[in-house]
Amino acid sequence: MARITKEERKTNIISAALKLFSEKGFYITTIPDIAEKVGMSVGNFYNYFTSKDILAKELVMYISEYLGESIRKINDQDITTEKKTYEIVSMYFNMADERPEMIEYFLRVYLSNREVFGDGCEGMICVSPFVTEMMMFFNDGVESGDLHDQDFFSAFGLFMGYLGGMVFLFGEKILPEPLEWYKESISQNIYNALKTR
Amino acid sequence: MPSKQDKKPSIIWFQGVTCNGNTHSFLNLENLDKLLNKFEILSHPSLPSTKDFDTITNCTLVCDIFIFEGTYDPLMKRNDVLISKVVEHYAKNAKYVIALGSCASFGGMFKASAPHRNSGLLFNEQEKSGPLLNVQTKIINISGCPIHPEWLAYTLSMIEKEREVEIDDLHRPIELYSTLAHHGCTRNEYFEWKVDADGFGEKEGCLYYKQGCRAPMTHASCNKILWNGVSSKTRVGTPCFGCTEPDFPRQNLFSTKTNMSIPEDVPLGVPKRSYLTMAGIAKTFHINRLEGKLIDYKTTD
Amino acid sequence: MITKQLIDQIEGEASIFFDMKDDVVDFATIAFPHFRGMESILKGKSALDALVITPRVCGICGHAHLMATVRALENAYKNAGYPIELSKKVEIIREFTLVMEMIQNHFKWIYLTIIPEVSKLTDSTRESTPLKGAYAASIASKAIAIFGGQWPHSSYMIPGGITTDPTNIDLLKVESYVDELISFFEKESIGISLEQFLSFESCKDFNTLSSDISYLESSLVTMKMNEKGFAYDRFLVIGEHTFSKPSKLKQTRPFGIDAKYVNTIDSYSPDKVSYAKNAQYKDEFYETGPLARAIATNLPIVKNMHRRFKDSAYSRVMARVFELATLLKHAKGLLSEIDISQKSCLKSVDISKITATGTGVVEAPRGPLLHTVNIKNGLIQEYKIVTPTQFNIGSSSKSNPTPAQKAMIGMTQAEALFIFRTFDVCSVCTTH
Q: Mean of the per-residue pLDDT values for chain B?
């Protein structure tokens, strides 16, 4: 059997931690819990992350990079802003469906425990890859004439707040239909709200 | 036998559609007399000249350096002679043609006087389609509205010393136009940390985010070779209007064009994505020293 | 027979068409070619862009255009219901840089235009020193640049104030440039102290001098310019300033004035298309510029000149010299009043909220400069510029000549050409 590289082991820790944080909650989950789930000693764990807070920040970076990379692939396509809107909504909902722990972590841990992310993760620092791609999406949309010019945060809040709300309802099992079912109408609603009048 | 006097390179300074701004800016040159002594001025709009204007428009003599100030309008006449004829004659016979100012370089301010026919000597805005295409190797564009006197003095001195003036794609001397107006701006730290100016009339803050400053996108040495030897637009809180570039004058000069709050144009050569990443992170930090009046910040650490 | 004379080495180019009778000018018409369409260039643009565009009307007095624009915009703000308060500091600094531009203009005119002409016409062997004018002008430009960033083509005045927030270091530098100008003027131009010069009360006082200015003065007398070049002996000052006083003057009698009575009419120029319109006040022609301003402010020496030589070419030239002297002193006084702790720019509502018409009038080197702007939702609907040269050097019919036309009648052609230049011609402004 091939030896697991340090990078792979780090990824394993991240996956395990995300699952535990979303199942048990951030504060209840301990480092021994995570180490056990990955199958390593607590001592060895500290070779990867020196504290739970540092792990918490790395997780946000990890998710932000994942989202940023996915949106960048959409931004780089030669398609209309309307189609891009659909693709972003679709990507986000797929992620909520297939890797709910990532979205859960982002919404429940990162946004609700700001004190953990104060030092070195303020503002844009940890979420920069994701926010930058959303900026590119809006910038390109206005430049191409598809979207109307407005304040960035007004548009960003409308887009991401809406998606976050739907994923929350989905997580609470309130939605009568699967997320897939809502992609078309929600992306239409978002695009209609943002498009050039 | 030709005397030493005769060996001085001769200059004809001729005007098209102009405001005389380059003429007056040039008169501000320090040690103007020393520069002028190296040349024979056959004709100039305000300095003593050895030939009268009738002789110039008769097109019977030639000069070494033909300086053209103003927008080129093929239908314009000077002294009842079409300038197209005058320009063609002197450009054909001169060693160098200097298109002086943004009007002569690209069309500039007075391209709008007759947009369908006016242009610079070699360029019509960015497009190389001006009337002097056939002598383009002689043409040096000194863009700017107006030119800085030292930019012209540098170019003339290089010619007089028979040294090569290297030029960029837009025929501007590289030594003058490879830097950006941003280089040397006293507000650079505010740009780095993304602290924008709170309106006009303050020493603090960067003018790029709201006030329309074009300095990071403009090839010029305004903050390196200071204006009138003492200052520059950005140093007195006026945004750079990009007056050395082919698209001058742009519109809405006192506000930054943004798309959803994101600057439409980012610093030259920087990919927008990289710029946004860097800007977003820099904006996160709040640096006390940069947020108040400089003069109120009395701690020294 | 009509003969044409090209005038170059003024600001731009002009043609005079002389109708000679018995070797003297029976009548002359003036044409300014080279239309640039500034007013239509401005149409549709953001009103603030005018602050960048109008200084480019003119390379020598662009700063006066900037000030006329900012006054017109501020007047439009007021008329739209958003009056703008300026700090005292702003008023002084704007006035100071305008004064400095006048000083550079007058130095250049004296040394690059009028002394060389005088020497030519009197066959003088005196060495020509045109670069003295350029040097002094460059020092005045430095003083402007400390506040305005650069000269020419600064755009540092904006509605609500100025873009700059000067320090004491800046003020000290500016002061040293003004001192340099004063000592240059004393040493190189007049040969006595500025105070002594300003205390002159009679033209006879010039006889005590031996300098560039006394050379100019005595040459004018030799040329009999104190008996020539008379216009209407009516004057107009419209711009509100600390160095002058708005008034309409018939001889030296002042009357009230209101910019709204300025009108323009098509020029009469049968031999060549001219793009200049003639400017009038209540349908009458008036002379504008330094002579007008000196009479409006009761400057003793100029009043003395006027009493003896009326509005002759002599008075016109010497009034400009004296204005230079008074402005140098005035500039120094202005600097001493600046309180840097005051606000440089007060925030005003966004220009897009403004729908109104505004007028701005300033005294430019050659006289009143009027800008009128009509703004709708922050965009320029219409922009109208009337320049001083349109008052002085219009071209009208023989029955109702303009000041410059009137001043040339009865002269030899050489004299007429000189007299024409005594008005300090700005062709580029005129054909905006």
A: 95
Mean pLDDT, rounded, for A82-100: 95
Tell me what pLDDT residue C432 has. Answer: 87
Range of the structural domain that residue C279 is part of = 2-430
Our CA dihedral for C40, C101, C170, B204, rounded to 10 degrees, sits at 0
Question: Which of C199, C200, C422, C411 is CA-nearest to residue C311?
Answer: C422
CA distance linking residue B78 with residue C13, whole number of Å: 8
Same domain, A21 and A58: no
- Asked whether residue A38 falls in the same domain as residue A86, the answer is no
Q: Taking residues B59-66, report their average pLDDT.
A: 97
- CB-closest option in B24, B203, B222 to C60: B24
A and C touch per CB criterion (3+ pairs under 8 A)? no
Within 141-160 of A, beta carbons closer than 8 Å to B belong to 141-143, 147, 149-153, 155
B180-291 folds as Cytochrome-c3 Hydrogenase; Chain A, domain 2 (4.10.480)
Q: How confident is the model at residue B6 (pLDDT cuts 50, 70, 90)?
A: low
* Residue-level pLDDT at A2: 60
Residue ranges per structural domain of chain B: 8-177, 180-291
Which chain B residues touch C138 with a CB distance below 8 Å? 27-30, 32, 228
Best CA proximity match to B144, nearest among B214, B239, B222, B35: B222
**Pairing status of strand C287-288 against strand C234-237:** parallel
pLDDT beneath 50, residues of chain C: none
Q: What is the mean pLDDT of chain A?
A: 91
Structurally, chain C folds into a number of domains equal to 1
**3-class secondary structure, C384:** strand
Best CA proximity match to C191, nearest among C175, C174, C208: C208
Q: Nearest CA to CA, how far is A77 from chain B (Å)?
A: 15
pLDDT in tens, A8-64: 888 899 999 999 988 888 889 999 999 999 999 999 999 999 998 889 889 999 999
The answer to whether residue B293 neighbours chain A at the CB level (below 8 Å) is no
Least confident of A49-58, B70-79, B113-122, B195-204: A49-58
* C-beta separation of B213 from B256 below 8 A: yes
Residue C422 dihedral angles phi and psi, to the nearest 5°: -65, -20
Which domain CATH number covers C421?
1.10.645.10
**ipTM value for the complex:** 0.96
For chain A, what percent of residues have pLDDT higher than 90? Answer: 68
Task: Kindly determine whether residue B284 and residue A136, on different chains, have CB atoms separated by under 8 Å.
Answer: no
CB contact under 8 A, C112 and B47: yes
What superfamily in CATH does domain B8-177 come from? NADH:ubiquinone oxidoreductase-like, 20kDa subunit (3.40.50.700)
Using a CB-CB distance cutoff of 8 angstroms, which residues of chain A are in contact with residue B272?
136, 139
Which one of A135, A138, A149 makes the best mutation probe of the B interface by having the most chain B beta carbons within 10 Å? Answer: A135
pLDDT class of B2 with cuts at 50, 70, 90: very low
pLDDT tens-digit profile of A140-185? 999 999 999 999 999 999 999 999 999 989 988 999 999 999 999 9
CATH number of the domain where residue A38 is located: 1.10.10.60
**A86 and A153 within one domain:** yes
Q: What is the CA radius of gyration of chain B?
A: 22
A17: domain range?
1-50
The answer to whether residues A90 and A164 belong to one domain is: yes
Do A107 and A150 sit in the same domain of this protein? yes
Residues A124 and A172 in one domain: yes
Taking the CA of residue C322 and the nearest CA in chain B, the distance in Å comes to: 23
**3-class SS of residue B285:** coil
% of chain B exceeding 70 in pLDDT:
98
CA distance A40 to A18: 17
Residue C376 token pair:
């709708």
Whole-angstrom distance, CA of residue A127 vs CA of residue A66: 10
| CB-nearest partner of B230 from C41, C146, C165 | C146
CATH number of the CATH domain containing A139? 1.10.357.10
